[in-house]
Amino acid sequence: MTRRKGKTKPIAANQPDSLKPDTKIQVVQPPLTYGNPGLFRYERPDAAPDCGNIFLKLKEEIQDPIDFLIAAVQQADLVMIGAGLNLSKAAFARDKFSDDQSFWAEMYQDFIGMYELPDLKTGSHSIYYSLEEFWGFWSKLIRLGRFTDFYSSIYHELLDLIRDKEYFVVTSNFDHLFERNGFDEKRVFNKEGDLGKLQCQHPCCTKTYDSQPFILQMCQNQKDRKVPYEMIPRCLYCGRELVPSIHLSERFTHDADWEDGHFRMNQTAEYARHHNTLYLELGVNDSKPGQIKFPIWKETEINPRSFLITINDKQSAIPDTINERALCIEADLIDVFAALKEKRMNSVKPSCGNE
Ligand SMILES: [Zn+2]
Q: Tens digit of pLDDT for each residue in 172-200?
């Protein structure tokens, strides 16, 4: 893999004296604006001074993984978060439902009796007899997962941890829990779509529709697992049915918001490659590694000043190329955030300098 080189331009011999090589020149990184000046609240004058990998120095000083996490966030120029399904599962388990199965049995008793579905995941990947049933299942799921008020203590603790830092989130979750719990929407990229949107099932175009009015109406009017046929949402352009705009198949479309988020992610990734960047991978499983996991490994490898911390109940292997610059915390995310909350009051503040 090629490493990116710094952006310092060579100084030509015929340049005026003020630009001769012995002149002190400040190398300034281009400002990160996303086409939206003021997005980053803190002015950073230039690339951070190169004092080696500051995270490795911290790791030598701090043995406790939670203390190290807190200190690494404090020292980082940028925290890049990659979040997967287990983060949302932990949030729902901690504050909403004590366990997945009791929720599933209570909410979807009618579907379980009809189709012998063992769990929610199987239910969401199943094919139903009719469109009316399809929407009977999905409207319940979307209302509950996307449109109910949900204060998640885990997401708030995460936000408290990084609130004063520059950060960016890339998530494969469809539930908008980051934005619903106070994260800046301009710093979140919902890579795999959003249950708050519908799209043409074909799709004939990239337009998406706010799903909330359709979902609420379908939930209020469903009976025997089905919604009324006339309430099934349809594309304004071709008349085909609308479906949730999430990446369950190759028909997932990229609307203007998705393209904007993708652009901001790429801009941040470029910034990250020239700074002391902490990559934080939260609850990402191995099922679709190309979405979050592999890009984070690649970015960590590119930047020798970066560090990767992963937190998940079951860890995947880390490639040899970044093994030294990675810490895997294998634990339930609920326990990790509980420990984090307790320790943050007395967080460690070592420096990267030569004291
Ligand atoms: Zn259409």
A: 999 999 999 999 999 999 999 999 999 99
Express each pLDDT in 154-177 by its tens digit: 999 999 999 999 999 999 999 999
CA distance 66 to 268: 26
Strand 208-210 versus strand 193-200 pairing type:
antiparallel
Q: Pinpoint the alpha helices (H) of 76-130.
A: 85-95, 100-107, 109-115, 120-124
Domains detected in the chain:
48-96+151-192+254-346 (3.40.50.1220), 99-149+193-251 (3.30.1600)
Cα of 213 to ligand 1 centre, how many Å? 19
Instruction: For residue 264, give both structure tokens.
Output: 């901001």
Backbone angles phi, psi at 189, to 5 degrees: -120, 115
Q: Are 90 and 285 in contact (CB under 8 A)?
A: no
Place of tokens 């203590």: 153
In the reported structure, the alpha carbon of residue 235 is separated from the centroid of ligand 1 by a whole-number distance in angstroms of 5
User: What's the gap in Å between 258 CA and the centre of ligand 1?
Assistant: 18
C-beta separation of 87 from 174 below 8 A = no
pTM of the model: 0.81
